[in-house]
Amino acid sequence: MSAAAPPAPPATRGPGAPVGAIGRRVLSLGPLIVNSVGVIGQVTRLGLRAVYLGFWQSLRGKVKIKKQLLPLMTNVGVRSAPIVGLVSLLIGAILVLQTGETIDRFGQIGEAPGLVALSMTRALGPLMTAIVLIARVGASYTAVLGSMNINDEVVALRVMSIDPVGYLVSPRLIAMVVMTPCLVTFSYLLGMAGGAIVAWPVYDITLQRYWDKSISYLTLADLYSGLLKSMVFAVLISLISCHHGLAARGGPTGLGRNIMVSVVTCLVIVVLADAGMTAFINQFLLEAP
Amino acid sequence: MSPPGSSTAGETAPGVDAPEGATARDAAPPPVIEVRDVELSFGATKVLQGVNFELERGKTLCVLGGSGGGKSTLLKTMIGVLKPTAGRITLNGHNVCTAAGPELDRIRRGFGVMFQSGALLNSMTVAQNVALPLEYHTKLDAETIDTTVKIKLHQVDLLHAADRLPAQISGGMQKRAAVARALALDPRILFYDEPSAGLDPIATARLDDLVNQLRDTMGMTSVVVTHVLESVRRIADRIVMLDKGRVILDGTLEDLEASDDPRIAQFRTGETAGPNSGVVSEQQFLRDLLH
Fold first, then answer.
1. Do the Cβ atoms of A289 and A217 come closer than 8 Å?
2. Are the beta carbons of B136 and A64 separated by less than 8 Å?
3. Contact across the interface for A162 and B81, Cβ inside 8 Å
4. Closest to B13 measured CA to CA, from B1, B26, B2, B24
């Protein structure tokens, strides 16, 4: 007979089972929380280094990013514009179609342009643009940096005394921060245009009247609150995507997993940031219409 | 054969007189690469154990060994990508193991590396890849950089492919382009990680000729990690052979050919049966099965 019997497995049946299951579930959250805090720390460090190298060191001529900036800005801005425009146009149209019938019952259809304008500038414009950028640009950042990492290109840069953060992350961060507000402004306009296109034939609101009503609702704070959100989203998307790219290991399977994790993380973080910023902006910056 | 871990390549050659009043030791030029008691572990696994060797200027060292023997890990440790758990590596007199930040960057500008895959940046043309270190680390104007790039590409016989993307050229050409990029800042040491991997015999021979040409014309000191014996026979001035992270041979090609160590003999002959076969004997299999 063996000297030491193996420890009894935790009870999975009986009256204590539900408590045991809850306990195990709570304990399993420990590594997840530790891991998440670790990733937040790594992304923050990456962001600080990218800002230092991209702004301070590039101004001193020690990091050269000019050559890369234009193609990256073209990719983020010009090439994303059609899809951002289409999504915004449809969102504006859907808003009028969905809300028009209800507010028309109260004789308030004339306020539909204001509803669309405020929805697009305060919430939907920045959020829909961010979602498009996560799918189109963030995923490609992770894929490109991940495949470079797996193919030793990142190590090669390091061995050539070229900081991969300055060379790869900083220009991507700058391209996103510069181009996202431009795309969001484009999204505002296309969203309102989408609403106008539907409001004219369905509710007989002329384009001139639609435009005048939209402008009368908007304040400068509405416009810049959306632009502020868009810049925060740009920073979050670029840093999370680049972090997951540079952390990719293990060939195509690891790369695929990192792209998926990057996209999901970006979506969750952007929505969380949107909720937090909306509460802050509504409390301190905006007046009720 | 020199005892492992103690010899110095190119000690005063026979027939060459040392300066009057100087001992043979004084006359020997200092080693460009010095690896002393290097150990590296990943967790409980020891990957490098007590690795020692030196290399003089203008010599080509081949690091040999089977797969998983620690060759590529040793190379990554020598170029400062991995930090050893113990020991010291000096390149041109600078300790790579303790250097960090700008100091490590300065040391790295003194050597070039050709990675196994070439590791060219795929979004840039061959010429842009070669120009990258020059744009980053020199204040040369665009015209001078362009001329330097042409010279480097001519050195590796790739001038005709300057405007092609890495994906548009063959594996052998990619590796030569990687050598051109490694040469961009005129380093004194070149590291090659498995240069013959995935190449046909002709492309391998061309790359070997390039290694010899750089040694003969520029006095380049080279460290070549490989397991291809034909290449070793063509380029090696000095051989270090690793087995399970330990140096089992430190000598010349003649030492390799003459060694009766069963591990070296098996590597030389390519026999499947031997100490490095990885095949479990029938008795061992039965023992594992029953217990």
1. yes
2. yes
3. no
4. B24
Residue B40 has pLDDT above 50, yes or no: yes
Angle at which helices A170-203 and A81-105 pack, to 10 degrees?
A: 40
Do B253 and B239 contact (CB within 8 A), yes or no? Answer: yes
Token code pair at residue B112:
């070039």
Q: Rounded to an integer, what distance in angstroms lies between the CA atom of residue A132 and that of residue A125?
A: 11
Would you say B67 and B47 are in contact if contact means Cβ atoms under 8 Å apart? no
Rg (CA), chain A: 24
> What is the residue whose two structure tokens read 């999370």?
A240
Euclidean distance between CA atoms B131 and A64, whole angstroms:
13
> Which residue type occupies A260?
M
Q: Indicate the SS3 state at residue B36.
A: strand
A159/B contact by beta carbon, under 8 A: yes
The CA distance from A198 to the nearest CA of chain B, in Å, is 44
Q: Please state, in angstroms and rounded to a whole number, the distance separating the CA atoms of residues B93 and B24.
A: 21
Rounded-to-integer distance, Cα A94 and Cα B64, Å: 68
pLDDT of residue B274: 64
A153/B108 CB distance under 8 A: no
Other C-beta atoms within 10 Å of A23: how many? Answer: 12
What tens digit of pLDDT does each residue of A99-141 get? 988 888 888 888 899 999 999 999 999 999 999 999 999 999 9
Residue A224 CB: number of other CB atoms within 10 A?
14
Nearest CA in chain B to A145: B121
Stated length of chain B: 291
Q: In one letter, which amino acid is B178? A: A
Provide the residue type at A124 as one letter: L
The residue written with tokens 């995935």 in the block is B198
The angle that helices A66-73 and A170-203 make with each other, rounded to 10 degrees, is 20
In one-letter notation, the amino acid at residue A140 is: S
H/E stretch holding B49 reads strand B45-55
d(CA A138, CA B69): 39
User: Shortest CA distance to B66 belongs to which of B271, B285, B290, B260?
Assistant: B271
- Predicted local confidence at residue B281, as pLDDT: 67
pLDDT of residue B11: 38
Chain B contact for A83 (CB, 8 A cutoff): no
- Identify the CA nearest to A158 among candidates B46, B55, A149: A149
Q: Which residues of B145-159 are buried (b: 16+ CB within 10 A; e: fewer)?
A: beebbeebbebbebb
